[in-house]
């Protein structure tokens, strides 16, 4: 095991992705961004993951992710081509792989959720956080902006008011403020977050995986609009004769638990 890694473990129908950078509150290194992409590319492409129904994303040691690992920045941030390569082909490629994941993603947020952590959490479908968690992206203190696609992702997830404060005023906010903004589903006592995230993932895993995949595709298409939304309408009812559709209706009518 290395000091810096993105690990994956399976717990039945649920996968757990863990960010780990000991001593740096799981700040993302360039290698971790590449590993994060590889993990989610693998989840999407591996036929062995057909039984996978939900993914929990968490950080090691009581922190989610404190941002980027600034100790690496002098080695690449001061040259335009290298900076573009980092944001477009490492960071965004990893975030896009998360966004493309067909299974629902549950963010288990503990402690620091800053910068890159907010971006990673923004890719998740459901977000639960501890009461002491802190959220922000104070990179204005470092003299640079959030990359355009990353900023659009965060803006869409947390809303205009908080996005502007985080990026323009280096604002850092507590979990309750993020709950009020609609970013978080629940704010929980810190010690309850891991169990709550696992319970929520188990709840999702017990439901129809086909319905989950189609709902995620619907959200993506409607957000994109235009041709994507029109294509959605063209294929929206292709599931009509699917086994899961029949099983769900049959089970309801028979007053039994469906076997998805």
Automatic annotation (TrEMBL):
InterPro entries: ClpP/crotonase-like_dom_sf, Enoyl-CoA_hyd/isom_CS, Enoyl-CoA_hydra/iso, Enoyl-CoA_hydra_C. One of its GO terms (biological process) is fatty acid beta-oxidation. Belongs to the enoyl-CoA hydratase/isomerase family. Keywords: Lyase. The keyword Signal does not apply. PROSITE patterns: ENOYL_COA_HYDRATASE. This is Enoyl-CoA hydratase/isomerase family protein. CDD domains: crotonase-like. It holds the Pfam family ECH_1. GO terms for molecular function: lyase activity. Coiled coil: none annotated.
């Amino acid at each position: 095991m290395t000091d810096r890694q993105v690990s994956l473990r399976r717990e039945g129908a649920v996968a757990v992705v863990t960010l780990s950078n000991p001593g740096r509150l799981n700040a993302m290194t360039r290698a971790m961004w590449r590993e994060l992409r590889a993990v989610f590319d693998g989840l999407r492409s591996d036929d062995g993951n057909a039984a996978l129904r939900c993914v929990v994303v968490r950080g090691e040691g009581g922190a989610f992710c404190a941002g980027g690992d600034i100790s690496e920045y002098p080695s690449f941030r001061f040259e335009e081509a290298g900076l573009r390569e980092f944001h477009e082909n490492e960071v965004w490629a990893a975030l896009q792989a998360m966004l493309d994941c067909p299974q629902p993603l549950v963010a288990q947020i503990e402690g620091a959720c800053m910068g890159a952590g907010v971006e990673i959490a923004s890719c998740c479908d459901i977000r639960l956080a501890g009461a002491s968690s802190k959220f922000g992206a104070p990179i204005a203190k470092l003299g640079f902006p959030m990359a355009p696609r990353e900023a659009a992702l965060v803006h869409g997830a947390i809303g205009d008011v908080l996005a502007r404060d985080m990026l323009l005023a280096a604002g850092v906010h507590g979990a309750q403020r993020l709950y009020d903004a609609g970013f978080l589903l629940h704010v929980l006592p810190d010690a309850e977050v891991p169990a709550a995230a696992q319970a929520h993932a188990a709840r999702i895993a017990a439901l129809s995986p086909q319905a989950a995949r189609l709902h995620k595709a619907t959200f993506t298409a409607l957000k994109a609009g235009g041709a994507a939304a029109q294509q959605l309408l063209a294929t929206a009812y292709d599931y009509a004769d699917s086994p899961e559709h029949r099983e769900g209706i049959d089970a309801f009518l028979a007053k039994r638990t469906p076997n998805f």
